[in-house]
Write a structure and sequence with these properties.
The complex is a heterodimer of chains A (244) and B (590).
Chain A lengths: L1 E5 L2 E3 L7 E2 L4 E2 L6 E3 L1 H17 L2 E8 L4 H10 L3 E6 L5 H15 L3 E5 L10 H9 L3 E11 L2 E8 L2 E8 L2 E5 L11 H7 L4 E4 L29 H10 L5
Parallel strand pairs in A: 1-6, 1-8, 6-7, 7-13, 8-12, 9-12
Antiparallel strand pairs in A: 2-5, 3-4, 9-10, 10-11
Helix pairs in contact in A: 2-5, 3-4
Chain B lengths: L5 H11 L16 H19 L3 H6 L3 E3 L2 E3 L4 H11 L17 H14 L3 H18 L2 H12 L3 E6 L15 E4 L5 E11 L8 E10 L9 E7 L3 E2 L4 E2 L1 E2 L2 E2 L4 E7 L9 E6 L6 E4 L6 H37 L19 H33 L3 H36 L1 H4 L5 H9 L9 H12 L6 H18 L5 H26 L3 H6 L1 H24 L5 H15 L3 H10 L10
Parallel strand pairs in B: 3-6, 4-6
Antiparallel strand pairs in B: 1-2, 4-5, 5-13, 5-14, 6-7, 7-14, 8-9, 10-11, 12-13
Helix pairs in contact in B: 1-9, 2-4, 2-5, 5-8, 5-9, 6-7, 6-8, 8-9, 8-10, 8-12, 9-10, 9-17, 9-18, 10-12, 10-13, 10-14, 10-17, 13-17, 14-15, 14-17, 15-17, 15-19, 17-18, 17-19
Classes of the chains: A alpha/beta (244), B alpha+beta (590).
Bound molecules: flavin-adenine dinucleotide (FAD).
Chain lengths: 244, 590
């Protein structure tokens, strides 16, 4: 089985976010970058599937040279080779286009990625890739087993779970508990140095650019309401919080 | 919240100690910056998954000795499995022994991350690492073939058995006996106390490295040998556990009692009996009667490890204190504030926060410096280099151990102080950290013993040659710092501090030459303190030089450097006066 795992390189989830250049540029200085946490689940399950029934896992990242430590980590975790599309991942459509172009050439059985990235959280790349390739896509997949040419999946849906089966090839957006995150071991880390990482030029141009970022509004002060005054609480929930 | 500061760690490794340059040596050339970072990531992942979550709970649920076996906290087993899978334990061994020739500096950096997250669990894996290094260095090919793979994979874990009830600091008084058998093995008889991880239910066997006297050996330190003594008998033909009727066979190592300790509660400290039924088999490790020398040669790593434990715990305390001081609002500033302020605004709290930063990052830097010397020693080719790095590691190991321990304790206590009354309660981790860190100035040689070793050995050794090597290193830093505006003043201060240190050392030499041995040794502890302060001042100057090239965070580092020089370096005047004063009130009355 040939699996393509698409990983994003995102700021560590505890990072403090700031912007520069009149709020038009995301300030990366001093931040620690990690493999997107949902992508990491996808990668872990892909490596498990390879260990169970053979095949190869290729890691794909759309990003600049700065993302190579995350790609190396994916190789240390167990991917066999990697491709980096040398471009800033400016928007979901652009990223999906790059993935679809690589996927077309590689003839993959599974294209796996996280349900969303944890920087911009658009959560649409898997859907667009599926559309571009003309194959089904599912998300968020929380369980995945492969039986011959069939994928047996569990997907989270509003208020419950859905069990599905579909034939390969597929595009999947994954989330926990599809697998446990894998911690690279020394042997993996050392062999990652010798695994191929191919850098390719992007195809097409990004159609969007950022005009400005803004931080969410600061949290409002806490309003204290005397315990005996339930009426004002209800009033505020109606008029200000608008939850009643 | 993470107990370590990865950004600062990376800065120390890359910008201050240029650890990447080590990879230009053939032995380490399989590594590069990326492998180093991935290894540290692995340590971080292990810490987040297995260590931080169990830190408090394992303190509240101590190991129990039940039916002759110790039951440890259930979260330990998955940690041990994961660290075994990570390959970290054997990473510093050579390729031919299934290691990865990882520089010790990077192993130490990983150790910092792990220990800052759970200092007690990490003792199990670190003891295994120590055993591996001992067997790798001194073991015969047969012994290595059996034990290295088992310990590398944590199928078996290990211990160090030195201490006896009458032989703590004074290991020359070890009484455990070893009797040679016709087949070349030995039968051991004796008792050991305080043996960390001395018994547990984690692995199929436990490998004890035991100091004992071979029958007929000379008295004192020259008659002590080192033995490999498994808890369960090993079939030396198959290299596996010896089985009788499908059952493991006891090697007559008995868990007599478990100590109930103040801290590091997840690690059982055991009272062990060897050979109560005259059936405890041991294999000699290294040369006969060289056990103590072997142990000490290898203990340098273990000692630095304890210094690192002190600093790691203090680091965890620092992270918590910084957060608390940001969040806790209390009191007003004497001038200009009508409303209560965050306590980090109060100069006294700020002083404590600064002191924590100076101690933790300065101490960490000194430890990394020592590990780097060990790495350079390993690859040195000329006799000159070997001698130099050997001298530097011998000189600085007790200092880095003692500073990490003593100042780690002090710094953790400052953290508790910053937390006020809440720090004294079990609702905050400071209480646990303050208990845990206390042991570091006691085990692996007390502060008193290390200070005696420093003064007794280094000042008089070959005309203070190690101190001369050290001084050259410090002066090189001073020279660099003189060239930069931001560090010029500190460079001059360190230069005069060096002069005071040399004056003090010469006075000490005079005392020794005049035969005033008691006076000479009496205040060894203060000499250690003075030398520790100087070493940290040196490290801060190195950090300062590197920080001048850094935007943003560089300013904060320089400020900590100035703080250290203003608040700590001045203490050496007082220490020097006490050291050279020959009228010592502490001498025995004749
Ligand atoms: C939690 C814990 C874990 C431990 N783990 C291990 C382990 O895994 N393996 C192991 O072998 N041991 C272990 N130890 C033992 C530890 O190394 C000893 O406790 C330590 O070496 C001190 O010995 P002692 O307790 O007998 O104190 P003592 O030697 O009695 O010392 C008492 C005091 O007297 C001072 N003193 C003693 N002699 C001199 C001297 N000549 N000059 C000046 N001052 C002196 C000491 O500095 C100290 O302050 C552990 C101890 C503890 C508490």
């Amino acid at each position: 089985m040939k699996i393509l795992v698409c990983i994003s390189s995102v700021p560590d989830t505890t990072s403090k976010i700031s912007f520069t250049d009149s709020e038009t540029v995301f300030n990366k200085a001093g931040l620690q970058f990690i493999i997107g946490p949902y992508d990491d689940y996808a990668l872990a399950r892909a490596v498990e599937l390879k260990e169970q029934s053979g095949g190869t896992v290729t890691v794909l990242n759309v990003g600049t040279v700065e993302t190579e430590p995350q790609i190396r980590k994916a190789l240390a975790i167990g991917a066999d080779d990697a491709i980096r599309v040398d471009a800033e991942p400016t928007d979901s459509y652009f990223v999906a286009e790059q993935i679809a172009n690589i996927a077309k050439e590689g003839n993959y059985d599974l294209i796996m990625m996280g349900r969303e990235t944890t920087d911009y959280n658009s959560g649409v790349v898997h859907g667009i890739v599926g559309e571009m390739l003309g194959i089904p896509s599912f998300s968020p997949v929380m369980e995945l087993n492969i039986d011959g040419n069939q994928a047996k999946m569990t997907r989270e849906i509003e208020g419950g779970k859905e069990k599905l089966e579909a034939s390969l090839p597929l595009v999947l957006g994954c989330q926990e508990p599809i697998a446990e995150w894998k911690i690279p071991n020394m042997r993996g880390i050392m062999t990652a140095r010798t695994k191929p990482l191919n850098v390719v030029a992007p195809s097409g141009d990004s159609l969007t650019s950022i005009s400005a970022y803004s931080m969410p509004p600061a949290k409002g002060a806490c309003k204290m309401i005397p315990a005996e005054d339930a009426g004002s609480l209800i009033n505020l929930l109606r008029t200000e919080a608008k939850v009643l | 919240m993470a107990g370590f500061d990865r950004k600062m760690l990376n800065f120390l490794l890359k910008n201050v100690h240029q650890v990447n340059t080590i990879t230009t040596f053939d032995y380490y050339s399989a590594h590069d910056e990326e492998t180093f970072q991935l290894i540290l990531d692995t340590a971080e992942n292990l810490a987040a998954k297995h260590l931080s979550p169990a830190f408090v709970n394992s303190d509240r649920n101590e190991p129990q000795l039940l039916n002759d076996e110790v039951k440890v906290h259930p979260a330990l087993k998955p940690y041990i499995q994961s660290i075994a899978e990570s390959g970290l334990i054997a990473a510093t061994l050579p390729f031919e022994e299934d290691g990865q020739q990882l520089p010790k500096t990077i192993y130490a950096a990983a150790h910092y991350i792990l220990t800052a997250s759970h200092n007690s669990f990490v003792m199990f894996s670190d003891l295994a690492h120590g055993c591996l290094e001992m067997i790798s260095t001194f073991g015969t090919a047969d012994l290595k073939k059996i034990y290295l793979p088992k310990i590398s994979t944590c199928e078996w874990l290990g211990t160090m058995c030195l201490t006896e009830p009458q032989a703590g600091s004074s290991l020359s008084d070890v009484q455990t006996m070893a009797y040679l058998q016709p087949d070349g093995t030995y039968k051991l008889l004796g008792q050991k106390v305080f043996i960390s991880a001395g018994d547990h239910d984690l692995t199929g066997n436990i490998v004890h490295l035991v100091l004992a006297r071979i029958e007929g050996a000379p008295a004192g330190t020259k008659g002590i040998s080192l033995f490999v003594v498994p808890k369960y008998k090993v079939d030396y033909q198959t290299g596996d556990l010896l089985l009788e009727n499908g059952e493991k066979v006891s090697n007559d190592v008995k868990s007599i009692a478990i100590f109930h300790k103040m801290g590091q509660k997840a690690t059982p400290a055991m009272h062990l009996g060897f050979g109560g039924n005259n059936d405890c088999e041991g294999i000699l490790l290294g040369q006969e009667n060289k056990g103590l020398a072997h142990m000490f040669q290898m203990m340098n790593g273990a000692r630095l490890g304890v210094g690192m434990t002190g600093i790691s715990i203090a680091s965890a305390a620092m992270q918590l204190s910084q957060q608390y001081a940001r969040e806790r609002v209390q009191g007003r500033l004497p001038v200009g504030s009508r409303f209560p302020v965050q306590i980090q605004e109060h100069p006294d709290v700020k002083r404590m926060l600064f002191a924590q930063k100076a101690i933790v990052n300065g101490g960490l830097s000194l430890l990394l410096q020592c590990y780097k010397y060990l790495d350079l020693l390993k690859v040195s080719e000329t006799e000159q280099d070997i001698f130099k790095y050997d001298c530097l590691t011998e000189l600085l190991t007790p200092v880095a151990k003692t500073f990490g321990a003593e100042m780690g304790i002090l710094s953790t206590n400052l953290g508790l102080q910053i937390h006020g009354g809440y720090g004294y309660t079990m609702d905050f981790e400071l209480e646990q950290l303050a208990r845990d860190v206390r042991i570091t100035s006691i085990y692996e040689g007390t502060t008193g013993i290390h200070s005696l070793a420093l003064v007794g050995r280094e000042i008089l050794k070959s005309d203070g040659i190690s101190l001369k090597f050290w001084q050259t290193e410090v002066e090189n830093t001073v020279e660099e710092a003189r060239k930069l505006e931001q560090t010029q003043k500190a460079a001059e201060q360190l230069q005069s501090a060096l002069e005071l240190f040399n004056f003090t050392t010469n006075k000490m030499k005079e005392m020794s030459e005049e035969g005033k041995t008691m006076e000479y040794l009496a205040d060894a502890n203060l000499y250690m303190e003075l030398f520790g302060i100087l070493n940290i001042a040196w490290q801060w100057l190195l950090i300062g030089v590197a920080a001048t090239a850094e935007n943003g965070d560089g300013k904060d580092k320089l400020k900590t450097l100035y703080f250290y020089y203003q608040y700590e370096l001045g203490k050496i005047d007082y220490l020097s006066r006490q050291i050279i004063n020959t009228e010592k009130l502490t001498l025995p009355e004749i």
